[in-house]
Design goal:
The complex is a heterodimer. Chain A is mostly helical. Chain A has 22 helices and no strands. Chain B has one domain. The chains are: A mainly alpha, B mainly alpha.
Chain lengths: 557, 102
Amino acid sequence: MKLWKNVAACILLSLVAGAALAAGDVGEVKKQSLNITAIVMFLIFVAATMGITYWAAQRTKTAKDFYAAGGGITGFQNGMAIAGDYMSAASFLGISGLVFINGYDGLIYSVGWLVGWPIIMFLIAEQLRNLGKYTYADVVSYRFQRVPMRTMAATGSLVVVVLYLIGQMVGAGKLIQVLFGLDYTYAVIIVGILIILYVTLGGMLATTWVQIIKACLLLGGATIIAFGALYLASDGSFSLERMFQRAVEIKKSNDIMGPGKLVTNPVEAISLGLALMFGTAGLPHVLMRFFTVPNATEARKSVFYATGFIGYFYILTFLIGFGAIVLLTGHPEFADPSAVGGIRGGQNMAAVNLAAAVGGNLLLGFISAVAFATILAVVSGLTLAGASAISHDLYANVWAHGNVNEQKEVQVSKMATLALGVIAILLGIVFEKQNVAYLVGLTFSVAASANFPILIVSVFWSKMTTRGALLGGWLGLLSSTLFVVLGPTVWVDVLKNSAPIFPFKNPALFSMTIAFVGIWLGSITDNSENAKKERASFEAQDVRCQTGIGAEGAASH
Amino acid sequence: MQQDLVHAIKSNPKYHELISKRSRLAWILAIIMLVIYYGFVMIIAFNKQFLAQPLWEGATTTIGIPIGVGVILSAFVLTGIYVIRANSEFDRLTNEIKEEVL
């Protein structure tokens, strides 16, 4: 019953958005009115989400409310929110842009990002729910020494959060620049201020609902663009074959129909695959969502719904990329020879420009507002995850050794949110010129090498000890970061050196191996008293993990 | 968790039934997913031309398109299989264990 209520609410929301679209039709005249449509729609979104934040603020009193929305989110809602976290502006704009430039290669990214979900489902979701409380560091420090384990897990979380934030902020700035005619710097500042408000006032409850609303709007908007573009690009026949034919004619080569230059050698392909698949299971803002549901049953449901929504979304981005090839290339109104890909705003704006080609200024306004909303929602989730790592892990458990009252902890979390908001703004400004999709790829390498190995081994291998975990975890974090910095993406493209020191763009194959070997070696050589105790307590951890007996309870209200 | 509770649960035959059934299913499905996905990645790594073949004589659509979409669908179907069994059979077993030991 509850599920259908949610589905109905989602449809209703899309309809309202559609009605708003239709109602605005009258005002559509020239280029200036485009900005007004987009700004009005965006302001409606901001007003609605501020309303939700106000509502959530009334209900956010305890630490459990702040970090985990009181544990009262349903599986369907959480699935929507997880999908929302995943359907970031970087993946919406970045993947459709990649498909627009490289064709089939874009699909390789999509597939890799999706197949992480079944693995999370089978190996991690319920274990995480049964062992943790607010952050994934709760899980990895469950039977190990608290201070060093938390410090490491929190550092891993923060590195991933910051890297991911860069991609999101750059997307935000670019988007608003193209759309609202606003200066890049102002755009980034507006995003920073709004997310600070959402997170500090409404905590996880507001963050979750902002994410759910945005997921509905984005899925609705992307569906309209994808099928509208397919209709137009296939001469009204909805034939994929026809659209592909026209795309190949325009590109004058059928390279776009198969894997091409994005993945150049086997090592890169396997390494990228590992990063995309296992990186998902190391993203702190996604893992955190498993603590917002009341039990393992709902945790599983949320992964199932999330996988469905995300898979559908990736199929849409593929259609959008090909639609953009056909409908944007050679049309002077979208052209900008100086930008990447030859379209206004560069390759990452393919989806946004396509919205204008399919549905005029009105759809452009709508999708731009949605894309902006997407950035706000994802950045809020990331900021909350980063703030939790600082307040729950570093402050409450490492610095204060668990002797801290809840109110104080939440206060620290809010201060951390403020700091992260400011950092996000600065990073957005510094990284303006990078391609956002690659940045997300790099984030996944670090998440797969630093966070994932510790998490999975602590749950499945009874012989892991604190020493092994620390050795493997730090090595994974350092090696993946170092390889990224010394590799072609940063060393050559950003720092302008002539040749990379580390030859591969995707380091996960190497850095994950280093992490796992580190864990193994550090653990088997550890014969300390502590190590014996930690091995002995695996049994109790495993029973709780498997049954949920003793796990954090459901909603307190 | 109390040590005697741990022993009570571990000596319950239903607990062993739950563990063996669930880990069997989880690992089988995980391996299927890994094989499908890394099969796809290996083709990209070693035989790009395979994916670039036309789907039928004279087609622009390549074999790679249904294969790529198929990998996406397989992920959805596999999670579905797990959720159906876990939320009925495994949850029932878990609840029975809880009733017996708590």
